[in-house]
Design a protein that fits this description.
- The structure is a homodimer of 345-residue chains.
- In chain A, helix 1 crosses helix 2, helix 4 packs across helix 7 and helix 8 crosses helix 10.
- In chain A, strand 6 and strand 7 form a beta hairpin.
- Chain A contains 14 helices and 8 strands.
- Chain A has 345 residues and is of the alpha/beta class.
- The longest helix of chain A has 18 residues.
- Helix content of chain A is 43%, strand content 16%.
- At the A-B interface, helix 1, helix 2, helix 10, strand 3 and strand 4 of A face helix 1, helix 2, helix 10, strand 3 and strand 4 of B.
């Protein structure tokens, strides 16, 4: 490399074209080398205060070469829950809204559903009765809408839905209901050499079709729940068929299992919003060196929703106690976030 | 950014320290920007010929912006089998050698093994009798040596073994028995914006402790077979305990399943060496646009080993037929590789 460097340096110093080349190279190296501290505030949608300071301090500490808390770039793993942490989850998980829309779309092909629960109630618009069947009912709805097609077909179904379906309250696309402060945090972390992952109880193949565009997180950095798939040759063409059989539920004590299985390294930063994220936060906290454990606390009934200990969706109870006991960072949505969604200008 | 660039450029042009800074920046930008075409031959250990030409042409085509075969960087996914593709696999899979060494190391804690197959035969050095029990015998050996400890403990066991164990024929460390031409290929692909993954039937946690150092492939880009793990709090400290229960066998028709589960994108380049890789190659080939399917054919009995259709290890039969029928690239180790290991200077 040294010889190559000398050769190109000599060449570039001699000619105008070479100097342009050198300048272009310099520009790119500066673009890479420039740290957010030199640039405009990368966390514009965060109000100034202890929460924002804690984030900036952590990132500064682990990226300061030679400092006592320095973490080498490959070890800068950051994991984020999705529902309630990166995008909203009320009045129901968005993936459940997807499943309900799919039941309606598929109903003409399933005349038997009008006499069969949980579908009959769903088709009458009676969600409460439909879900009265508990987990078996949800399992039936998920499998009827998520299995039986190839992975490519399912991807297209998700893409079509996510591009058109609107949230019942805001009338916005679901992908507009992502938290702007968290988007800024993801970008800020990546600009500081972090690799950002989603670790969600949501379906891995429900998220992947849009996470790269919306969060800048590529499919290979999405960890989630899954059903089994089977490799088949159809007319000589290989396909993966989605089977009505659970493979992995990426929630609670299985979040660290999913992290280990998929990433194989312990995060140094993790963000969640519910008790389903507690073990991920504990797993993150248990590593050596400096760690950041964050919880998004939904405290803003006006701009978003306010819920925690007694909510059925995104229950935040034990994790809130542990956060308080251990000094983890609890984001007070109402106080800490200047704005929540990009559309509320 | 432009202003910052101008400021630093002016500053750097003025002072000696600045010029040193500029040179350092230039060095790094060249290191990043230098394409293999400008640099010395990146595939030095490959003999000139159609195989090497096919690789260089493929990489040139998919990276040529504006060209008909251009592939955007995030889609440049390359997957490699490990045993027999990146490192040797004779006279037995290296992970089996690890398991046998572990049986010996653990024998004092298991006095019952001297009367219990397959352990009794193994401890007498009679591998053939030990493996006569077929898959159940192998399962017992794997579980006795790979389960029952935490993931952190297992990682340390693997690190210790890989740093010291020697191959019976070459007397070299196993990590020295990696194919130099394939290391160069991995580096060449990464320099051209590819993300390189291992997709191996080997144990994911057996590979991860050393793949980053040896192949430049980080843990999160290793896909492999696994056993189940369980999250536990031990004295308040979270651990993942390895259970004697299979989770996933990443082989044959389950290689595309593993790729989809873990990466969520179809590779545009895949390399294998046996029938266990056939479905991964088919899955790769079935995508749209330009594709590269490669097979390492073990043809060199002098420098390595020669085996294919009738070998018990790394059987290459159906995949060789399909490669020939479909024009996939078959690497003739004897003819195409100038050298095999770095230690054979």
């Amino acid at each position: 490399m040294t010889e190559l460097y000398r050769y190109i340096k000599e060449r570039t110093m001699k000619s105008i074209r070479g100097r342009i080349f050198l300048n272009v190279m310099l520009f790119f190296s500066l673009a890479l080398a420039a740290t957010p501290a030199q640039a405009a505030d990368p966390l514009l949608s965060w109000n100034d205060g202890p929460t924002k300071q804690a984030i900036v301090k952590f990132v500064g500490d682990v990226t300061r070469e030679g400092g006592p808390n320095f973490v080498a770039e490959p070890e800068r793993i950051a994991t984020f829950d999705n529902d309630g942490t990166l995008w909203a989850e009320q009045p129901m998980y968005f993936q459940l809204a997807f499943a309900l829309d799919r039941v309606k779309a598929l109903a003409p092909q399933h005349p038997e559903w009008k006499d069969k629960e949980p579908f009959a109630s769903l088709l009458k618009g009676d969600l409460k009765s439909a879900l009265a069947g508990g987990e078996p009912a949800i399992f039936q709805i998920v499998m009827a809408t998520h299995a039986g097609m190839t992975t490519a077909e399912f991807e297209q179904i998700v893409k079509d839905w996510i591009a058109t379906a609107k949230h019942p309250k805001t009338k916005r696309l679901y992908t507009e209901m992502v938290y702007q402060p968290m988007l800024e945090l993801l970008t800020y972390l990546r600009a500081n050499g972090f690799k950002t992952f989603i670790v969600s109880g949501g379906g891995i193949e429900f998220m992947r079709p849009w996470t790269e565009k919306v969060y800048g997180i590529p499919p290979e950095q999405v960890v989630g729940s899954s059903i089994k798939t089977n490799f088949e040759l159809r007319d000589g063409k290989p396909v993966l068929v989605r089977l009505p059989e659970l493979n992995f539920i990426d929630d609670k004590a299985d979040k660290p299992v999913g992290i280990n299985q998929h990433i194989g390294r312990r995060p140094i930063l993790a963000f969640g919003n519910s008790d389903g994220d507690l073990q991920m936060l504990q797993w993150t906290a248990a590593g050596s060196g400096m760690r950041f454990m964050g919880i998004v606390h939904h405290t803003d009934a006006d701009r978003e929703w306010a819920y925690d200990r007694t909510s059925h969706i995104g229950t935040l109870d034990k994790a809130l106690d542990e956060a308080n006991a251990k000094g983890w960072i609890v984001v007070d949505m109402k106080k800490d976030w200047k704005r929540i969604y990009l559309f509320e200008q």
